[in-house]
Write a structure and sequence with these properties.
The complex is a heterodimer of chains A (278) and B (231).
Chain A: H1 6-13, H2 17-20, H3 24-37, H4 43-54, H5 59-88, H6 97-124, H7 150-170, H8 179-205, E1 237-238, E2 241-242, H9 253-258, H10 266-273
Antiparallel strand pairs in A: 1-2
Chain B: E1 11-12, E2 21-22, H1 24-33, E3 53-54, H2 58-82, H3 90-114, H4 134-155, H5 162-186, H6 208-215, E4 223-224
Parallel strand pairs in B: 3-4
Antiparallel strand pairs in B: 1-2
The chains are: A mainly alpha (278), B mainly alpha (231).
Chain lengths: 278, 231
């Protein structure tokens, strides 16, 4: 899910990253040009080629770049695994609309995994693509019945999707002027939000007190284990502008918090998903 | 000259490529000072090539572009709630009222964030929408929400300020939540189908030019987007 901030991360381990692309301006222009020149399906290959060219012969830096790309890929692996395993669990997901919709979401997450793997493969070779880690969907017992209890399963699905949306946003600032690369990240981000909206409606149909959007920092889930995924969503001020009753428009606190989704830092996201990795 | 601008809250000076809104007071000062000079004031000449509103350039232009779209969305939902379609359910009323409030909040946020650089209120035309018809209203809502998501996604790369990019990101995911909800109301399970996603399951974004061509069907005020960044 996190196809974000590759330049920013690389810059931390390789301050010269931009000079490898001639200049920052040119690097960004390269990205910007991608969208105009090639089909969207070819973006991973194009981005991969840029890195391959820029980093030819620099082994230690290559390792760092691969680490970053694989970090994003690993988060995608988690989501894809969650839906794949859910669909494989007998009697978990009801036949009909529920199965159809979880299948739809599963296919999207699998496609996102492929998008990242293609990018890494093109730039550094298939051997550099991180293998799927061992995943414990119970998060070490926190969600013990996640693959046998549909209610738990959907609660975890909601948390993954809402967290995914926040993960992108939390680092968007580092991606500014990222051209087609940024656009690709945004185009994944909104799909995660569409998933979140639908999963929340699926939970509502089962009696959960949730809306398609996030109200305050209310989780609508009966365990505090998911609270970290909603911390800070109750913000009512944006860029120092108070949204509640803005310009006398009668905007409630709830509406003010719903109208803007908040980001999460990389550290916060890793703390949330950490228990799912063995 | 003042009579001609009586309905204008803000005046764009179009003598350079950048929209530079002036307060009415300042405008009158300028107008007085430059009488007889060849400064072109677009608001004074409705037949000028730059008639209508000029979104401006750079990040201001992109924010005004977002402000224009939020004005359109907010106006639509205000009308939806003021004259609900036949057979609307209590749950639909609640959710659509919330969406209205979200869009109004977005609109007012941009207005305040832009301050003196904000374009004025746009005149909309919803004559093609049958507000008593559920199908008509939801089809329009779907079109507006999908359009909004594709617009923010397409504009992200044109923004140079990290702060503005983050704010656009905070809004676009809410628009995506709206889009998925409306789509599910029309046909459950259509929250993210291949009319809005590509083969990589990435959303299909749109350029400002593409977006305004579609939105233009509902906006009477002529919008000049010629100074927006394109890359």
């Amino acid at each position: 899910m996190n196809f974000n901030n590759i330049f920013g991360e690389i810059e931390k381990v390789d301050p010269e990253v931009y000079s490898r692309f001639d200049t920052r301006r040119k690097a960004l222009r390269n990205f910007a040009g991608i969208g105009r020149k090639i089909a969207i399906a070819a973006i991973p290959m194009a981005i991969g080629s840029m890195f391959k060219k820029a980093y030819a012969g620099s082994k230690s830096t290559n390792e760092a770049v691969v680490d970053i790309l694989n970090y994003a890929l690993t988060l995608e692996y988690l989501e894809a695994e969650f839906y794949t395993k859910g669909l494989q669990s007998p009697l978990l997901i009801p036949a009909g609309a529920a199965n159809r919709d979880i299948t739809t979401i599963s296919n999207h997450e699998t496609a996102h995994v492929k998008f990242l793997k293609d990018t890494i493969t093109t730039a550094f070779g298939a051997a550099k693509v991180a293998a799927k880690p061992n995943i414990d969907l119970t998060a070490k017992g926190t969600f013990a019945d996640v693959l046998t209890n549909y209610s738990t399963y959907l609660a975890v699905a909601q948390t993954f999707e809402d967290t995914g949306v926040r993960a992108y946003k939390g680092r968007a600032a580092e991606l500014v002027k990222g051209g087609a690369y940024l656009t690709a990240a945004l185009n994944i981000h909104s799909v995660e939000a569409r998933h979140a909206s639908h999963v929340r409606q699926m939970r509502k149909a089962m009696g959960a007190l949730v809306k398609p959007w996030i109200t305050g920092k209310v989780t609508g889930i009966g365990t505090t284990a998911v609270n970290a995924s909603y911390a800070g969503e109750d913000l009512t001020t944006q860029a120092t502008i108070q949204i509640v009753n803005i310009n006398g428009m009668g905007i409630s606190v709830d509406a003010a918090t719903e109208a803007f989704d908040e980001g999460l830092t990389k550290d916060a996201v890793l703390a949330i998903v950490g228990p799912f990795f063995i | 000259m003042p009579k001609m601008i009586s309905s204008e809250k803000e005046i764009m000076v179009s003598s350079d490529k950048t929209a530079r809104p002036l307060s009415r007071r300042n405008f009158l000062t300028y107008a007085g000072a430059v009488t007889g000079l060849s400064v072109v004031l677009s608001a004074c000449d409705k037949d000028d090539d730059n008639k209508g509103v000029n979104l401006g350039s750079g990040d201001t232009g992109i924010l005004n572009y977002a402000y224009a779209l939020e004005q359109l969305e907010a106006a639509f939902y205000v009308k939806v709630i003021a004259s609900p379609f036949t057979g609307i359910t209590a749950d639909e009323t609640a959710r659509l009222t919330e969406i209205r409030d979200h869009e109004v909040a977005h609109r007012e946020f941009f207005k305040n964030a832009l301050g003196a650089s904000a374009i004025g209120a746009l005149e909309v035309n919803f004559s093609t929408i049958n507000f008593t018809s559920r199908d008509s209203v939801l089809a329009t809502a779907k079109a507006f929400e999908d359009l909004g998501v594709s617009a923010y996604n397409g504009a992200g790369a044109l923004i140079t300020s990290a702060d503005y990019l983050v704010l656009a990101g905070k809004i676009v995911s809410v628009e995506a939540r709206h889009a998925a909800y409306i789509r599910d109301l029309i046909s459950n399970g259509s929250f993210a189908d291949n009319t809005v996603l590509d083969v990589n399951a990435l959303e299909k974004s749109r350029t400002p030019k593409e977006v305004l061509a579609i939105a233009g069907a509902y906006i009477v005020t002529k919008i000049n987007a010629s100074n927006l960044p394109t890359s």
